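FIELD: query
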Amino acid sequence: MAKVAIVTDSTACIPAEYISKYPIVVIPLHVIFGSQIYMDGVDMTTNQFYKKLVESKINPTTSQPTPDAFEKEFKRFMEEGYDVISINISSKLSGTVDSATQAKNHLATSRNALFTVATLEFLHRGGRIGSAAAFFGTTLDLKPLLELRNGRIEPVARVRTFSKAIDQMVSNFEKQVNHKKPLRLVTLHANALEDAVNLLTRLKENFEISESFVSEISPVLGTHVGPGTVGIGFMAGL
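FIELD: result
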């Protein structure tokens, strides 16, 4: 059973004893009195707040946490092996949910898989080519660059040679990684070990990689992509 952590915000009003007892993190919203910004429940006690609220001539305003505040906690829990549930104040009352969503999306775009196949024949046979079929038309002898996106195989580019497909793969990989660290990756192959090793060597020469290895594509996946397939699976910033 997976470990589960909860990341919530200060409007949840969770008693301190529960926060210390369970894997729960509370991200504070902000209370603003003029030029003074206070983290909700951190920089002043509730008694201090209500006293200031009554005495101050300035009516306070509030603001949401930044996406970075959520991302930091999401990442910490994920690195510790937790599945994370984020529970926040309604989006109709605050932009806090938007900050949490931005953080989630930023982490999510840190993981991907890019690959090229020797021929589209096997994807075509198995009906796994999806929307890429229209992109490539009836020409099945191209060397395509494909991406596993939201559980579907989607087209990225189409070139005439394997070497250009690899070049395009590395270029797209660089854009998606965008200097995020740490960078972990695997080069994958279907009966094309030398190509996968050469690709990994090239990546190591051009990127700062914290962990890497070469792996063979399983027969189940190989049924659909066919021999000669080479790809990169990677995770950046986690």
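FIELD: remark
The mean pLDDT is 87.
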